[in-house]
Amino acid sequence: GPSNSEGAGKVSFLKKVPALKDGDFTLAECTAILLYLSRKYNTPDHWYPSDIQKRARVDEYLSWHHANIRANAPKTMWIKVLIPLFTGQPLPSEKLQEVMEGLSTSLKQFEERFLQDKAFIIGSEISLADLVAIVELMQPVGVGCDIFEDRPRLLEWRRRVEDAVGKELFFQAHEMILNIKELSNIQIDPQLKEHLAPVLMK
Amino acid sequence: GQHRTEEFRKVNVLMKVPALRDGSFTLAESIAILLYLVRKFKTPDHWYPSDLQKRARVDEYLSWQHVNIRGKGSKLFLTKVLLPLLTGQPLPPEKLEGVTEELNVVLKQFEEKFLQDKPFIAGSEISLADLVALVELMQPVGAGYDLFEERPKLAEWRRRVEEAVGKQLFQEAHEGILNAKNLTADKIAPDLLQHFKHQLLKQ
């Protein structure tokens, strides 16, 4: 429905902090935005189930997500594309390895603790938890780190999420992420580069 | 109420991962637990307002805080209290300065973006956001960093939250963390110690 496309559009927009504007009301934080939209537009129950135990499972995932998947997955983009872009140097491969290891740990927990043998994170139906997870996990894919390659269970889950969301909408939302390599061709102002390089290298 | 004591215990028990058990249903993640309790016990509206926009403000804070107040607050606590226990060495001052500075940055963001000139994060009434914020801020305080000292606005907010919750309950709930300096390695669960060791020594 329309709420899904708004939601997906707002959370995938590269380099812009996801933000929602509803008249005078502005809201940041993708989780908060998705919850707001699901309430405002009374989306189908499965996105954020009214059953309090199922809902708690979504909350549990959304909470864990921040310090884990969300902390690790985007680093692949920083390491492979954005930092070299701003510093003009390729990044040492040990750093990438470190990032991939961190991400591997998160993915292992994701599969063993949250997904397990279920179709979706909270059970047989897709919810906001799956949406939030897949959006972050597309970032490494966009920079050439195919995390789904050796993880058949994860890949199956991704296919189910794509189907549930609708393939076309899914690719629309991720068009920018999947074309991120084009970003490397953009010219950056040298002064900005100079200013940002030490910050980014921390 | 009784469930509020439970809430506090669940988010504040030092060195234990918060978990809830309700019959055969178990739940981790303190935010998820708080929301579950709010819904199950139908607590007063202000904790998680039914007004869509006020609720969104609470969600916004609860989301942001994971890697910010919570992340940096616990980092300072772990670095200052736990790292010396793990390594057997005193903490290098630059390390402490570094994690303190990181916390200072997010404290500024907290004051400017989330609290602003309002009595509480969501507006005129206390909510889960304030509860969670203050609980996390007690970690660096427990580690010896009096972050309220030179931040009068924050100190006022803290007083308001303590009053709204009840001073005695608040002190009770934080007894553990405020005595963190007396912590020795043997008081911590071994697998938890291992987990932090790995995290802290990486940096």
UniProtKB/TrEMBL annotation, chain A:
GO molecular function, one term: glutathione transferase activity
Domain GST N-terminal: 1-45
Class in the EC hierarchy, top level: transferase
Residues of the GST C-terminal domain: 51-192
UniProt cross-references to Gene3D superfamilies, sorted A to Z: 1.20.1050.10, Glutaredoxin (3.40.30.10)
A biological process term (GO) from this entry: glutathione metabolic process
EC number: 2.5.1.18
Cellular component per GO, a single term: cytoplasm
Keywords assigned: Cytoplasm, Transferase
Superkingdom of the source species: Eukaryota
Catalytic activity: RX + glutathione = an S-substituted glutathione + a halide anion + H(+)
Any Pfam family the entry gives: GST_C
Family: Belongs to the GST superfamily. Theta family.
Oligomer and partners: Homodimer.
PANTHER family documented for this protein: GLUTATHIONE S-TRANSFERASE THETA-1 (PTHR43917:SF15), PTHR43917
Official protein name in the record: glutathione transferase
Organism expressing this protein natively: Podiceps cristatus
Organism lineage: Eukaryota, Metazoa, Chordata, Craniata, Vertebrata
From TrEMBL, chain B:
Every GST C-terminal domain range: 51-183
The enzyme's E.C. designation: 2.5.1.18
Residues making up the signal peptide according to the UniProt record: none
Top EC class for this record: transferase
Gene3D superfamilies: 1.20.1050.10, Glutaredoxin
Keywords on record: Cytoplasm, Transferase
Location(s), subcellular: Cytoplasm
GO molecular function terms listed in the Swiss-Prot or TrEMBL record: glutathione transferase activity
Catalytic activity: RX + glutathione = an S-substituted glutathione + a halide anion + H(+)
Record's keyword annotation contains Transferase: yes
GO cellular component, one term: cytoplasm
Family to which this protein belongs: Belongs to the GST superfamily. Theta family.
UniProt subunit comment: Homodimer.
Protein name in UniProt: glutathione transferase
Source organism per UniProt: Podiceps cristatus
Source organism phylogeny: Eukaryota, Metazoa, Chordata, Craniata, Vertebrata
